[in-house]
Amino acid sequence: MSIKESSTNNENKKKLEQSCSEIYAVNLISGRWILSICYCLKQGKLRFSELKNKIPNITERMLTMQLKKMEEEQLIVKKVYAEVPPRVEYELTQIGTQLIPVLDELEMWGKEHKKIKNSSN
Would you write out the chain's pLDDT as a tens digit for each of its 121 residues? Predict the structure, then answer.
């Protein structure tokens, strides 16, 4: 769900993003699907159907929207081959590839947090 452009919430978000690079980065990759797509693409380029199969429960519409957003943010590049039927591949850009160590750290942190949380229950 997008934020209304003229809303106070949107203004606050923009001001926070301008003053804090961490918030800008988190807002860029936040949401349910973008990290999943990045995780899938960290092994290399994939076709749309391969991405769809690797991400459980994502609809084609949502995958299309997220890929478009990621392309606009220059996290991925879309390569269309002039073939019949058309072949389209997605891969991380150079700046997108720089997310891989961050994803790896988040994975380790998440495993550790789960372990701590589960041991306290």
Answer: 455 666 787 777 777 767 788 888 888 888 889 999 999 999 999 999 999 999 989 999 999 999 999 999 999 999 999 988 889 999 999 999 999 999 999 999 999 999 999 998 7
Please give the Cα distance from 28 to 17 (Å, whole number): 10
Judge whether 63 and 48 are in contact, CB under 8 Å. Answer: yes
In 1-121, where does DSSP find H-type helix? 8-19, 21-29, 34-41, 48-54, 60-72, 94-97, 100-120
Distance CA 75, CA 31 (A): 15
